[in-house]
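Hi support team,

I submitted a single chain yesterday and got back a structure, but I'm not sure I'm reading the token output correctly. Could someone confirm the output below corresponds to the sequence I sent? I've pasted both exactly as they appear in my results page.

Thanks,
R.
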Amino acid sequence: MAKEILDILMEMRSKGEPYAVATVVETVGSVSAKTGSKAVISHKGMVIGGWVGGGCAESTCCDAALESIKSGQTSIIEINLDDEMLGAGMPCGGNMRVYIEPVMLKPTLWIMGHGRVAESLCLLGDLVGLQVVVNDPIADLDHFPNASHIITDDILYEQLLPAEDDFVVIATQHKGDHESMKQALSSKASYIGLVASRKRSRLVLEYIQQEGFTESNIERIMTPSGLDLGARTPEEIALCVIAEIVMVRRHGSGMHMRDKLNMETKNHGQLTNKK
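Hi R., thanks for writing in. Yes, this is the structure output for that exact sequence:
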């Protein structure tokens, strides 16, 4: 069973699909599954390997797995198999507790370009839990040791294929920013940043407009890219960009934490007074 589960986990990772692992952590009474039993549940809510019990427990675990995959949070569910309402409608007997752990895909940070900004983006992107792909003709592992994948033979950026939850940062130093931007805008990437001077940014935006992209598409481009942290060095610029990406990914406000806390405290006080 352990080998079967391991093989399935490896297969799911290679497919790049989210899934959840259900593990029985406690049983009481007449329960068919043993403590430690595991099942792998797909993002479609189906058991694809392992076993945590029959129909009495399986549907409950699958429902909980879907919720965990959706929220990205682990959970522990208690299944009362004596109760037909709380169980799955079958009088199995006993109780069990099951730990549900979602295994989420890492979003990908696509970096177009080389240089100190790009290298720092790669390092910081990896540190905040992103898979990093670098696309540049002269990129190598010596300069991008944290990259998951390096592309060096794609001058037209045809391999720039970000998914909906991915992030794209173009830091090509004027070499390929037009082509890579067109490709990025053709995707559903959740973030598209351009690291460039104001003059170069304006030229790229004008080019994109001339290529027929709509105003709503052009508004997706974050340029200058990054939060205003007063950055001066390439490393600081990269930090600003990664901070903005984290804000987008986690739906943050970009406020000072102190100011946010003060605002929340003030709002809570106003609500209390109204009551």
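A quick pointer for reading it: Confidence is low (pLDDT under 50) at residues 84-90. Let us know if anything else looks off.

Best,
Support desk
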